[in-house]
């Protein structure tokens, strides 16, 4: 049976530490390095509900994308949401490993998974500085309305925010999570469409001015694509001796109110 540290070492192979951005906090962030692991829960985030789910399934380890905490956590208190989760993990004997921007940038990581989910073939890196966002090509051009419907279903999203530039989709810029800063770069590199999340007002305005399709497909939905892949990789790498499962309780948090137009 593998230990927490063994699983962390394997995850470093998938998403090397040197790929992380300077601000980030990745790796084993809480728990018991030498404890043996039989079950792993994989989730985009570590929430109170995810911790309870781990307890229910008997998991000794949670592997998450978003860090349990970044720099600046100066105390651990039950009155603080992050502190409460750290205390809960330790009390329940559960460790936490987080792979964030290193997994965003890694080959086969978040953005490669997003491209595949949208039916695209990765043809290059969009942002050469952080090497996170991707350029992906569809095998043939697709009407924007058809692509919207397909993307919404593929990402299991409850709604998409978008700007329709009236162009078919063939060459996409992609950045799972908050990637609006790469919109103009996608335009300069010949993309007809940019897919990301957390898009701001002025970025929608810029898309209109640049005449590029823009889709805000939700932070959760654009990054959660990696979760089942990680769970499968962990299970297979350790020869089935460890059972890794995707969180079922953690879902898209944003909701949309759409008035009845009838």
Characterise this structure.
It is a single chain. This protein is an alpha/beta fold and 262 residues long. The protein folds into 2 domains: 4-103 and 225-246, NIF3 (NGG1p interacting factor 3)-like (Udp-n-acetylmuramoylalanyl-d-glutamate--2,6- Diaminopimelate Ligase, Chain: A, domain 1); 107-222, Udp-n-acetylmuramoylalanyl-d-glutamate--2,6- Diaminopimelate Ligase, Chain: A, domain 1, CATH 3.40.1390. It has 10 helices and 11 strands. The chain has helices at 4-14, 48-57, 81-91, 101-105, 110-117, 144-154, 183-188, 201-210, 219-223, 226-237; strands spanning 27-30, 39-43, 61-64, 95-98, 121-125, 134-142, 161-163, 169-178, 193-197, 213-216, 243-246. The strands form 2 sheets. The protein has a 6-stranded mixed beta sheet. A 5-stranded mixed beta sheet has the order 1-4-3-2-11, sandwiched between helices. The longest helix has 12 residues, at 226-237. The protein is globular. The termini are far apart. The mean pLDDT is 97.
Unreliable stretches: none
The total count of helices amounts to: 10
The CATH superfamily of the largest domain turns out to be: NIF3 (NGG1p interacting factor 3)-like
Q: Distance between the terminal alpha carbons, to the nearest Å?
A: 59 Å
- How confident is the prediction overall: mean pLDDT? 97
Main pleated sheet = 6 strands, mixed
Shape, per Cα inertia axes: globular
Helix content: 25-40%
Name the beta content range.
Answer: 15-25%
CATH topology of the largest domain: Udp-n-acetylmuramoylalanyl-d-glutamate--2,6- Diaminopimelate Ligase, Chain: A, domain 1
The succession of helices and strands, N to C, reads: HEEHEHEHHEEHEEHEHEHHE
